[in-house]
Amino acid sequence: MTGFGRGVASSPNKKITVEIKSLNSKQLDLTMRVPHYFREAEVEMRNKLSEALRRGKVEMMVSVESNVPETSAIVNIDVLSSYKKQIEDLGNALQLPEPADWYATLLKLPDALRTAQAEVSAEDINALHLATDEALKGLDEFRSREGERLSLFFRSKIENIGELLKRTEVFEAERIPKIRKRLEEQLEKLSGIEYEPGRLEQEMIFYIEKLDINEEKQRLRSHLNYFVETMESNDAQGLGKKLGFISQEMGREINTLGSKSNNADMQRMVVLMKDELEQIKEQVLNVL
Q1: Among 72, 113, 220, 246, which has the minimal tally of Cβ within 10 Å of its Cβ?
Q2: Kind and range of the H or E run holding 264
Q3: Which residues, 6 or more positions from 283, have their beta carbon under 8 angstroms from its beta carbon?
Q4: CB 74 within 8 A of CB 119
Q5: For residue 16, with 0-12 CB atoms within 10 Å meaning exposed, 13-18 middle and 19 or more buried, which class applies?
Q6: pLDDT on residue 273
């Protein structure tokens, strides 16, 4: 979901620049920095961004430059009168002296002067929409390039896990005989205890069956294939969440392989698979 887009549009009086950047987030966290005279359009802009982006920590910044020279500024008398009355009331309530220079105090306050830039027309609102659309398009193109890079990354990691899974088969042939031999050696150390060989054989078979990992290997291969199939699907809605769920299932099978392995070499392969999977999980957060 990381991306950046920039759009510029002009009206007869204004040049409007919109910049939108996004970072990873499970939900949509939208922050807008819009000049106060565009506040009426802010709700509409927020809806536009929410529909287009869906997820991510998004920041939208709007800057405005005047296309016409500022020949004069008009004093906002009503606004300044309200400011003056509030300051006088505040002074009376807190027993504070009046400002020594009312002009300097009042003219520093917001909206003290009204210029042509502060006047918003329909053309200005339309230019704001055009700049926002251009910025969203740029952000989408940025995300598309990032998606192509992530696709190659995921395929590489999935192939690595599949290759590590194959390498566990080298240790599979020697794993069970070693476990059986170790159990027999432990039984020989127990003196004075009689046991029925047939029953011992049944219990040993039952114990060894518990250590069988064929089902886990088969399910893990299935999850690896499903991960790639999901990436290639045309259904982009909620793709990141689906890939996250699949990676969780992959983690369960890898953990079970590790707990059943009873073999140091195989456990090293499991650790390497976990490392590859953690890298996948980190980047899945960057998928919508």
Answers
A1: 72
A2: helix 264-284
A3: 150, 153, 154
A4: no
A5: buried
A6: 95
Q: In this structure, are residues 3 and 148 in contact, taking their beta carbons and an 8 Å threshold?
A: no
Instruction: Kindly tell me if the per-residue pLDDT of 120 is higher than 90.
Output: no
Q: Quote the CA–CA distance of 278 and 250 in Å, as a whole number.
A: 11
Cα(133)–Cα(5) distance, rounded to whole angstroms? Answer: 10
Report the SS3 class of residue 59: strand
Q: Which of 273, 266, 20 has its CA nearest to residue 140?
A: 20
72 pLDDT band (50/70/90 cuts)? low
Q: Which residue has the higher pLDDT, 279 or 212?
A: 279
How does pLDDT run across 223-265, given as a tens digit for each residue?
999 999 998 886 666 788 889 999 999 999 999 988 887 778 8
Three-class SS of 136-149: HHHHHHHHHHHHHH
The answer for residues whose C-beta is within 8 angstroms of residue 164's C-beta and 6 or more apart is 269, 272, 273, 276
Phi, psi of 233 (to 5 degrees): -70, 155
Q: Is 284 exposed, middle or buried (0-12, 13-18, 19+ CB in 10 A)?
A: buried
* Cβ 79 vs Cβ 111: under 8 Å: yes
* Claim: this prediction has a pTM higher than 0.85: no
Residue 253, Cβ density class (10 Å: 0-12 exposed, 13-18 middle, ≥19 buried): buried
Which is it for strands 56-66 and 28-33: parallel, antiparallel or unpaired?
A: parallel
At 117, is the pLDDT very low, low, confident or very high (cuts 50, 70, 90)? low
Exposed/middle/buried for residue 33 (C-beta within 10 Å: 0-12, 13-18, 19+): exposed
Contact 67, 42 (CB under 8 A): no
Coil, strand, or helix at residue 74?
strand
Q: Please state whether beta strands 56-66 and 14-23 pair in parallel, antiparallel, or not at all (unpaired).
A: antiparallel
